[in-house]
């Protein structure tokens, strides 16, 4: 009999972390690998935020805090929602966790019973289905096409809903495609959801502040009819280049927030007191960093999209957010190349050309791959040259 639990057997390790680890190992073995797998901004955390953390250490903010966040951070989060999303919340509608990842995990643990379904539009962030499985729920994957900009349509949503549907996950701008939903697209989905009163919506807004081309961010809780059934998750990881600090948060119905606190109280307790103090400064302090960084990302996005579309066999949409592109390699999956799947393509690309990307199937949609352009222009130029040479050697 295995010591490992049945629930753990239902899940697999994160494929994106696996690719990053593989690239790290190859590099350690002396190979000149360019890693385009990581979902992490390459910018450093802004100085004002670092200073707030140092001040917190020096002034003795080094003890346990309230389990789901200090009042100071919760107040900063309330102000953020009001300022940026025109949403009003009270303190008991806010929870803070060790990264958005913990908030999501706790949410599913707190709300799913065996067999409850969670609608997950694909391509999806790799952790959603596994978190749902771990909590005993059933991921209901809905494939979204390139023609639909990789976004869920009202028609597909309607078809996916059953009596067992408990949650719909929306992630805009999206990991892995960078696609952002417009207000109109969200309103279309909402028309279906207002009639289905038992379904809750989990809006993962972690890439809210990484967007381009005047894309107007809209989050579903802004629709009054759905606000009381929506949990809006966000965090400082991507917005303020704070992935290592591990602060994420959510706002929504008090019964869910209370249940999350209960789980947290019996597992990790509070997120780091120092990181919380830093997050207060991130949310309340100067926001200039966001714009400066978006400009740099935009240059890279434009370069990467243009370079990929100039490669024979590859096509790539222009996303309006996040720091990913999701090009198609379908035309390179054939008898001549001997590639059956995107995984074959990605494996050979790493072996032959030392470029690490992640196969689309890891995100629930075959025939694509994800590139993270959160790396220097120098690396991107080198990587694009290598991908071009690799693809053209196949034809
Ligand atoms: N949601 C999405 C879509 C993500 O891409 C990530 C991180 O990669 C997270 C949530 C979690 O971020 P964190 O735990 O760093 O707050």
Kindly summarize this structure in a few lines.
The protein contains 14 helices and 12 strands. It has helices at residues 6-9, 15-28, 47-58, 71-85, 99-111, 127-134, 154-160, 183-193, 224-227, 254-265, 273-284, 288-309, 342-353, 377-394, and strands at 34-35, 94-97, 117-122, 138-143, 165-171, 200-204, 230-235, 248-251, 324-325, 355-356, 358-359, 369-372.
Overall description:
The relative contact order is 0.17. The strands form three sheets. A seven-stranded mixed sheet has the order 2-8-7-6-5-3-4, sandwiched between helices. 42% of the residues lie in helices and 13% in strands. It has 395 residues and is of the alpha/beta class. Strand 3, helix 6 (127-134) and strand 4 (138-143) form a beta-alpha-beta unit. The longest helix is centred in the last third of the chain and has 22 residues, at 288-309. It contains 14 helices and twelve strands. It folds into two domains: 6-44 and 289-394, Aspartate Aminotransferase, domain 1 (Alpha-Beta Complex), CATH 3.90.1150.10; 63-284, Aspartate Aminotransferase, domain 2 (3-Layer(aba) Sandwich). Residues 39, 99-101, 125, 171, 175, 204, 206, 235, 237, 243, 248 line the site of pyridoxal-5'-phosphate (PLP). Pyridoxal-5'-phosphate binds at residues 39, 99-101, 125, 171, 175, 204, 206, 235, 237, 243, 248.
